[in-house]
Amino acid sequence: MQTTSSKATDAVVLSDKLSELPKAQTQPSIYKVHNQLRDVNGKAYEPDIIAIGPYHRGKDNLKMMEDYKLRYLQFLLKRKKGNVETFISAVGELEQEARSSYSEPPTSLSAPKFIEMLVLDGCFIIELVRKRHKRDPTCKNDPIFKMGWIMNSLQRDMILFENQIPFSVLCRLFDLIEGPNKHNLLIHRLLYFCENLYSGGRVKYTTGRNLQEIKHILDLIHGNWIPPVEEVCVDVDKVPKIRKWRFIHSATELTDANVAFKKVKCDNFFKVDFYGGCCGLGLWRCHL
Question: Domain spans of the chain?
Answer without folding.
Answer: 35-225, 230-287
